[in-house]
Amino acid sequence: MNNDYLYPVDVGELVKALDADTAKKIHLEEAKRDDQRLTAVVWGVGHGWFPVNSRYEPHYAVDIGVLSPNGKGGMLRKPVKSIGKGKVIFLQDKMSEGRFALSRVIVEHPIPGGSVWALYQHLESISVTEGKEVKAGDQLGIIGTHGDFPHLRIATISTTLLGSPEREGRSLMPLVDSKALPADDSVWDILAVKLPTVDSLEWPKAPSGPVYAYNPIELVRFLREEPDIHDVGADHHLNRIKISHENQTVEVQDGIHADHSCTVLHSQLLSADAGLRLAATDAVRFLRMGKGSQLGAATLNAIQGALDKLEVKGKRRKSFDDEVVRRVQVFQKRIKSDPGFLEIYGFEPPQVAVDGRIDWLTLIAMDAFVAVKEQQDAAAAAAKAEEEAQKAADKEAEDQQPEDPEAAFDREAGEAYKAGYCPRCGYNFPASAQDGGAAPAASKGPDQDLPSGLTWVSFFSAPSVVEGLEPSFRSSVQDFLDALKDAGVPVIAGNVKPRPANGVKISSTFRPRERSYLMHWSWMITKKSQGFDLGGKVNNLDADDKKFWQGELASSIQSIPKLPGVTVTWWHGDLTASVKGAREMVDNYGINDLKTPPAKFSRHNERKAIDMNVWWDGTLTIKKKDGSSQTISSAPSDQTNSELIEVARTYGLIHFAAQKPEPSDAKEKKAWRAVINQDAWHFSTDGR
Fold first, then answer.
1. Number of helices (H) and strands (E), helices first, in the chain?
2. Cα–Cα distance for residue pair 250/431, rounded to 1 Å
3. How far is CA 24 from CA 40, 66, 356, 396, in A?
């Protein structure tokens, strides 16, 4: 073994950064040497592989780190070491731009028969100077966050062809041309790629002309004169890659992860102004903008446009005056209350000035918030276009195939829920002090009084998506849905015809308090007008409901209590029109068959409930939370199955039926089933 060469990170620190479950999944216990451990972690946990990445794009480097959704922890700020003796021929000590550490070092390492050039990239800071002579193990810098997790990107090239089949045990084969990479999984067997040239922007001062790019881990192993036991491509290692796909929790956006020369401003709105682009590049000499600042019309318009985009209320002004100062202060308070965001930039909340003057941090934060909002708007527009296309296709198919009742309910409910759809956030911006994260938003109601009727169904609606739930309950729901998916019962989006044999259909998650109010009183008006008999359930009503139910209908409608923020007019001036308006709402909410009034306040309002239909054909084998399997062959094959309800309980989802266990007596069971069917699809944190 030749100890003149070392791996670029402390492998022991890397292994310690892994949790025990992940280490087991990537078979880390099988690795006996550091090169095997590095290979297991890089291919089993990350997605920056050699010679292609997880998106099957060319990637002549490896990303060494541990996936960290918040950009913290893992290998953040751990030392990056020189793999051997050499000379620093280039460095770029560039400040990090948000989640993108941009500093890099290139070292030329002499080796027998030639040189190896190594690129150490995504550093948060650099410890060497250009021209410095280094030896193996010398610290070059520390690891920074780039994209979705802290990692070192290391690439190695040489003009010398190293290793050959004749040198048994020290091979760096197979070698392929960059134009002939395998199209199947054998691509991960490749240890060297011949390139016609390298990108001069990525490799300044590196050799021109044909070069060989080597798998950096295997290159160090080769230089250390250790036998080749490279296992990428073996069956168990491909399983590691599969595990990486299945357990990846952070989505890397195309075009950002691979971009190592990112601009400071990322939002279209702010980056369109040349003055702001220039100001954002220099945090040290940044000229604070405040009251009285002489800003060009385009710059002032961009700043106020950003505040509008972020819904910071206030009027547009022609100069940086008191009104603009006040709006900037409101935004600065948002920054101050988000320590997670500040940590990325190395700031503490006390360092945030709330004075209405735009300093560098305020501008960068404003840009980050606006960029996410722009991505959301674009995604929402694309989703709306897709919905419209699907709607047109569905209408065309109506004449060819009759719509079953459940599909009809899904379509009508979808019309009610689609208003206010908000795509998922790319960053954990605070929505409230309670959940600490952005969630799909509900649509607002009208400012003016409006008679009850169909129009109200589109107000105070929220998308029926898991992202709308309270974070802890959302995690439980997602785990249960993942277990169903693994069992062959996936979530079905949209109106799929014919209905699949197995599926999950989510009909409701977050329900705003205002929507519950509208559902409750429209049902009360409709059912009282129909002479519906509540029987003994009247005793369970609150004082307002009891007064309404026991009074004369016209006067009862006029005495319905108001809810702040809801400008509905229940009384239209005559009884017939008032009942018609309420009935339109009940029909389009899909609640006409309910035997009890919808709750004014429920776990849906707290983001702690989900309504979903589950169905399957034949026998269902599903895993509980503890990993044990449950085989269900009993009827019914839906979400009211008592065995499935118990499986859901292990994940923290309590079914409505779980409040009242299924009786053994046949007569009592029939009555119990009738009650359960009123809310057969409801799961929450406690069944209510």
1. 19, 20
2. 20
3. 11, 15, 52, 51
Selected residue with higher pLDDT from 505 and 185: 505
> 289: which DSSP letter?
B
| CA dihedral over 163, 179, 64, 54, signed as positive or negative | negative
pLDDT on residue 438: 45
pLDDT tens profile 300-322:
999 999 999 999 999 899 899 99
**Matching residue, tokens 């810098």:** 141
Q: Is 334 exposed, middle or buried (0-12, 13-18, 19+ CB in 10 A)?
A: middle
Count Cβ atoms within 10 A of the Cβ of residue 444 and give its class: 0-12 exposed, 13-18 middle, 19 or more buried: middle
According to DSSP, the residues that pair with 266 across neighbouring strands are none
Helices 360-398 and 322-336, packing angle to 10 deg: 80
Q: Is the pTM of this model over 0.85?
A: no
Q: At 110, list the tokens.
A: 């002499």
145 backbone dihedrals φ, ψ, rounded to 5°? -90, 130
Site of tokens 């409750």: 520
What distance in Å separates the CA atoms of residue 517 and residue 605, rounded to the nearest whole number?
11
pLDDT 10s digits, 36-45: 899 888 887 7
For residue 151, give both structure tokens: 């990692």
CA–CA gap between residue 161 and residue 222 (Å, rounded): 12
3-state class (DSSP) for residue 654: strand
Alpha-carbon span 263 to 266, nearest angstrom: 7
Among 151-160, 436-445, 471-480, the range scoring the smallest mean pLDDT is 436-445
Could you identify the residue written with the tokens 């094959």?
637
Q: Where are the domains of the chain?
A: 11-247, 268-372
Query: Which residue, chain included where needed, has tokens 């300093």?
Result: 359
Q: Which contacts (CB < 8 Å, 24+ apart) does range 445-451 have?
A: 445/514, 445/565, 445/566, 445/567, 446/567, 447/567, 448/567, 449/567, 449/568, 449/569, 450/567, 450/568, 450/569, 451/568, 451/569, 451/572, 451/577, 451/581
Whether the CB-CB separation of 287 and 279 falls below 8 Å is answered with yes
Task: Sort residue 77 into left (φ over 0), alpha (ψ -120 to 50) or beta.
Answer: left
**CATH T-level assignment (fold) for domain 11-247:** Glucose Permease (Domain IIA) (2.70.70)
Within its chain, how far is the Cα of 24 from the centroid? 25
231-265: buried (b, 16+ CB within 10 Å) or exposed (e) per residue?
Answer: bbbeeebeebbebbeeebeeebeeeebeebebebb
Q: Which residues contact 139 (CB under 8 A, 6 or more apart)?
A: 79, 80, 81, 82, 127, 128
Query: String of b and e for 587-612 (b: at least 16 CB within 10 Å)?
Result: ebbbbeeeeebbebebbbbbbbbbbb
